[in-house]
Amino acid sequence: MLETDEHKALRAAVAALGKRYGRPYITRTVAEGRHPTELWSEAGKLGYLGVNLPQAYGGGGGGVAELSIVLEELGAAGAPLLMLVVSPAICGTVIARFGTEEQKRTWLPGLADGTRTMAFGITEPDAGSNSHRITTTARRDGGGGWLLTGRKVFISGVDIADAVLIVGRTEDARTGRLKPCLFIVPPDAEGFRRHLIDMELNAAEKQFELVLDDVRLPADALVGDEDAGLLQLFAGLNPERIMTAAFAIGMGRYALERALEYARERSVWKTPIGAHQAIAHPLAQAHIDLELARLMMQKAAHLYDAGDDVGAGEAANMAKYAAGEACVRAVDQAVHTLGGNGLTREFGLASLITAARVARIAPVSREMILNYVSHQSLGLPKSY
Q: Which of its termini does the chain have fewer beta carbons within 10 Å around, N or C?
């Protein structure tokens, strides 16, 4: 899809910001055990973090299409911000679309300028990819509020979050069945505990397990309509998949550019190694795969921003799948192009081998996406 002049200008501006920080900055923050607060803060002040949020609440008035450009270009510069997927894309979108006026005024300006951050909690240890098995439950406390109980795992950025948007389930008074609902939970609430998960993945954003033990919440902690939980949930999950695609495409582009630089300069048999098809063709294929994934990501973002949630669901899943596969292959080929140098700290590609797998696994595995396409797009029966 053709980009507008505004999109091209945004892409160039964010790329310039990313290059000023670059991979060395991210590597340094990881080594120091801290978050990329300087980049996050500057991106917020420049208006990049909130490009998808309403102008009335301090955002840029754009959509996921614009926010995906921000994440992709930061990633292509070697400085991706994973919390872009979570804070403005998921939480900001859900609150902007379904939150009360008070929730919008409280959260959206801070999410837009980066002074406030939200985490998102859906994954559970026993539910895996089956969101219908979520056991975190919310029940009325008798005084108009809620009591929230359950567990969540692999929740990013809880240590820097001002609140966590938690997916729980409440009982439908008419049918007695459990239905999904979303709650804004402060991390200092009584009964809320977090445990750091020891990851071999080198990333600034830490992963946590959450324990919710009768966390008492006021009535206004519920986001939107209690009866529209499923719609609200998918309003956040589609942008999550689109932004994960942007994260993967940016990472793949960064790895590919490092490989191209090396292939143009490294000479072993009198000519640069990039002149040989054994090197050139896989790199060309990686470039093609990344560009194709970007096209699907742009389609998904366009459909979502246009209000076509059904069409966006299919395209977002396809974009996430294509981008994850393209990213893994691009990183693998980049490392292979550099040979032993691809595993050194000097070239900074080895750490991407693990990071690239994230786009295949999270927020939903490639196998579950294939299930989705099989059932929803092709009309094939389920095996589960």
A: C
Residue with tokens 């589609």: 238
Contact 243, 84 (CB under 8 A): yes
Task: Please classify residue 133 by burial: count the beta carbons closer than 10 Å to its beta carbon, then call 0-12 exposed, 13-18 middle and 19+ buried.
Answer: exposed
Gap between the Cα atoms of 10 and 378, Å rounded:
37
Rounded to whole angstroms, what are the CA distances from 17 to 28, 250, 359? 17, 14, 24
Residue 170 near residue 137, CB atoms below 8 Å: yes
Which residue intervals of the chain are DSSP H helices? Answer: 5-31, 37-45, 64-76, 83-84, 93-98, 101-113, 229-265, 277-305, 309-338, 350-361, 366-372
Which DSSP letter does residue 376 get?
A: I
Instruction: Give the integer Cα–Cα distance in Å for 290 and 311.
Output: 22
CB count in 10 Å sphere of residue 201 = 14
Q: How many CB atoms lie within 10 A of CB 209?
A: 18
Note if the pTM is more than 0.90: yes
Q: What is the CA radius of gyration of the chain?
A: 21
Q: How confident is the model over 236-262, as a mean pLDDT? A: 97
H or E stretch covering 211: strand 207-217
Write the DSSP assignment of 72-97 as a string of letters: HHHHHTT---THHIIIIIIIIHHHHH
Q: How far apart are CA 12 and CA 73, in angstroms?
A: 8
pLDDT tens digits along 93-135:
999 999 999 999 999 999 999 999 999 999 999 876 666 778 9
The one-letter amino acid code at 333 reads Q
Signed CA dihedral, 113, 315, 251, 201: sign only: positive
- CA pair distance 294, 319, nearest whole angstrom: 7
For residue 71, which of 318, 240, 261 has the smallest C-alpha distance? 240
CA distance 375 to 383: 10
Neighbouring-strand partners of residue 151: 211
